[in-house]
Design a protein that fits this description.
This protein is α+β, with helices and mostly antiparallel strands. The protein is built from six helices and two strands. The chain is globular, with a radius of gyration of 18 Å.
Length: 147
């Protein structure tokens, strides 16, 4: 058994039971975005969080322990994503990455936006021309230091 086996069990159980990530997140007491990342193997659960997920997804104690192992982060199976939705994010970074970098550096100076001290919010935005996906990313600015 490994972490991917636990992820597959979580997804299978979610589908079989018709669960929504937002409902799982509410039971866990975390955002739907972070909870989904955790369940997909990209975050580390506390013992208490693993126990709650164990109850929701019928995980054994061994499977719950796998949720508490620090994962190898990065969920893309290929260098250039082939899934159309994920590829659009790759496209956004390819087209606007240098713009994001330039504007962040102009506003904050030389540094990075953290993906560790980070939050994300995904919402549906009604629009008469077709609903839109609203994504807000918020990461702490970490300046490079002189040494």
């Amino acid at each position: 058994m490994n972490r991917m086996d636990v992820t597959e069990k979580i997804i299978s159980t979610k589908v079989a039971r018709g669960l929504r990530w937002a409902d799982v997140a509410q039971q866990l007491g975390r955002s739907k975005e972070w909870t989904t990342a955790l369940c997909l193997g990209q975050m580390t659960a506390s013992a208490q969080q693993a126990q709650v997920l164990g109850e929701i997804f019928d995980l054994t104690e061994d499977e719950q322990r796998w949720l508490q192992v620090v994962p190898s982060k990065g969920s893309l199976p290929t260098a250039v994503p082939t899934d159309p939705l994920v590829y659009r994010w790759y496209e956004v970074v390819s087209v606007y990455g240098s713009t994001l970098k330039e504007l962040i550096h102009e506003e904050f100076g030389d540094g990075i936006m953290s993906a560790i001290d980070f939050s994300m919010d995904i919402q549906r935005e009604a629009d008469p021309k077709g609903d839109r996906v609203r994504v807000v990313l918020s990461g702490k600015f970490l300046p490079y230091k002189d040494y």
